[in-house]
């Protein structure tokens, strides 16, 4: 008996004008007009997060069709990476060109969820551009990598409002990708890919030849 083919859903791909129109193309700073470039992007079922060259994070809620803005205090610098996570609370991690990393715990209208926007800052371990971010599924661990090869582990206690960070690995080339699952951090650099076992603090390289 022939198996029944699953139904095919056709989707149309088109520019998200409703999203792009909510982000300014220029801002005025004193007497200068500054062009706004979109520099980072992440999506999930609830949000679309867009980083910009002016240090502003634009967060579009898909359910409410609302755009919200978040920024770093102090100087205006380009956002280089954003990473969303939906667990018990909605979280977004943001990295910048100078190595600043912040976590925003978003407000939720659902019962028992977070009712006040909170921000956690990763202490100044990174000194160069953030190139990768990875969450643990429960939102208690965040890993950040930069273009100098440093990887920082941040332990978050959302209930207590605490973020403790430490350098866990340093590679000789830029970090290009991070992914975390089951106490194992997958790390890709410009030269190699490795598995970092966070409990044992040990490294297992994938393959033997360096990348060309």
Automatic annotation (TrEMBL):
Xref: Pfam families: WD40
One GO term (biological process): protein exit from endoplasmic reticulum
Name of the featured protein: TCPR2 protein
Record InterPro entries: WD40/YVTN_repeat-like_dom_sf, WD40_repeat_dom_sf, WD40_rpt
Residue stretches spanning the membrane: none
Gene name in the database record: Tecpr2
GO annotations of cellular component type: cytoplasm
